[in-house]
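Students often ask why we bother predicting the structure of a whole assembly rather than each chain alone. The short answer is interfaces. A chain on its own may look different once its partners are present, and contacts between molecules only exist in the joint model. In this exercise we take two input lines together and write out one structure for the complete complex. Read the inputs first and try to guess which parts will touch.
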Amino acid sequence: MNNLSPKNNMFSSPEARLAVIAIVVFITMAALSPERFLSPQNMTSMAFQFPEFAILALAMTITMLTGGIDLSVVGISNLSAVIGATILTQFAGPDIAGIEMAMWIGIAIAISISVGMLAGLFNGIIIAIFGLPPILATLGSGLVFTGLAVALTGGSAVLGLPSGVAWLGNETVFGVPVPVILFAILALGLSFLLARTSFGLKIQMYGTNPLAAQFAALDVNRLLMKVYMVSGVYSAIAGMVIMSRANSAKADYGSSYLLLAVLIAVLGGINPYGGYGRIIGVVLAVLSMQFLSSGLNMLQVSNFSRELIWGMLLIFVMIVNTQKGFKLNLGKTPQTKSGK
Amino acid sequence: MKKLFSKSFWIRNETLVAIVIIAFIIIASISDPRFLSMPTLTDLLRGGIVLGIFAVGVMVVLISGGIDVSFTAVAVFAMYTTTLFLVTFVPELSWYWAFGISMLIGAALGAINGIFIAWFGLPTLIVTLGTLSIYRGFLLTFVGSKLISNLPPDMRDFSRLMMFRNTNADGSFYSLPWAFAALVIVVIITWFILYRTTLGRSIFAIGGSIESARRIGINVRATQFFVYVYVGTLAGLAGIIYASMSRVANPFDLVGLELSVIAAVVLGGARLIGGYGTLTGTLLGVALIVIVRNSLIVIGIPSTWQSVAIGVLILVGTGLPAWQAKRAAARAS
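Now the answer. The structure tokens for the assembled complex follow.
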């Protein structure tokens, strides 16, 4: 499965190196400001912050494993959140309670996730059937999804959601924040899907060599459609978390999450040319990023320097990975696989 | 000219985009006769200056087989640093010095991209994604995050230099700033580099096939390095023009524009896999994006549908050629 990371050395796999990075960052931050970084408040606030972009990173990951990319993840999550929120405000309103509220929230979530699935299917169709390069297909469809959300709302936020919506993003179950539980389920689910099902195996085959996969009688079109549908569903779930945490929905929420999601996936050792990647890497990348940004926050470093440090971390990890791990084709965009 | 009506002419992106633009103009001038006028044209040209310079740079990167998403950060970095430097130390310096400094900073940042891409062999999307956050983060953390509204007087004067200015019969006023000449010069220089120098042929060659290019003796590293320095320089230029035209240097501007610029270039027919792209197509793509941004309302589509329209254009504009290529490949096998 991970034929590109021989197990001869403890640090030969990107995941092992990432684990080291995550631990080093954690220890450094804890040493620099122990009373604040290790405080329960900080732990809780970190736990509530990361799931929304981490779920988007998972959505990005599965498409990258096929050698594609999904630039529409944020568009899908906002569109589905806007539709869900509109249903809730139109039919339920803020004063609703009890069983009725649970029912409407359930309906809204189900519709939002279906919207995400349809949006993903749309991506899959234009990529698989019409043969658009994924980067362009999802760039265009991302604009369409965001644009639909703008057109539906006129560009303003959808406010006045029932009180129950806040549960998903702000409550804890047995002391564990709900969004973390959700992220854990989604990460484990995706990990299972990739490592233990034929669907996962086919994704890796296609990502490693699309032509060979086609000659091996793989139904490539079906596979791609499914992959982008999973990505769409995950994006919609991230949209639900964002809606719950913001207690509203808007067409341009989380626009900085798009590049962040790509960054996390690549940092997590996902080969942007497809074929190699493990979910544990993405989880470790998410944790490193969150430790780093919270720690810097504690140290009173400005918000903007986070961006700076994330960028440096990304390039640093890429240099280490390229020199030691998989050799990448010189300066080619992810669509070309001549180097494989 | 004899190829004008051949089949390949009609399926080219340039033709498709031109047809969409003409159709748009016809519909717009039917629904509002005032649309077809000099003020509309000058607004369009003015709106295309910064976008156009960016797009030309992006086109060169796409031809070389790479992609650059960091150019907006380069532009805002160069623009803001230059303005801050001038305002703090030498506010009386001429505008061309400002332009020179900004382009130099742009070139230097482009060179950093170039080193990572050409010498470390990292994927272009990842490098430029990383440097996008690095440049912007560095700018906002260490250089400054405050708006500069008292630009050096000479930069403000530059934005008032008009190629012509005129008043319509109905009293409306239109003009075209000299900044537009910068776009024309950039297009001419880029055309010269791409089609009249060995360097230009090398850029096309490494975009077509990096391995073949290497085997026929092209210095792939030097060529790639040049491409990213060139994009950086153009970004520096676009940034300083943007600041002098908007008469304010805002460190939060420009970043976020990168996907629209790439969209314009791709609409114009440049291919992401490299080796193909034309200046005509790129400029038409920019024109289409600017028209859709400024004048969608004239043909009766509310401006809230603007990004849906651009998205659909990208999907159709890249989908048709992709689908044709796919069908051709299916027939061939």
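Check your guess against this: The CA atoms of residues 167 and 173 of chain B lie 4 Å apart.
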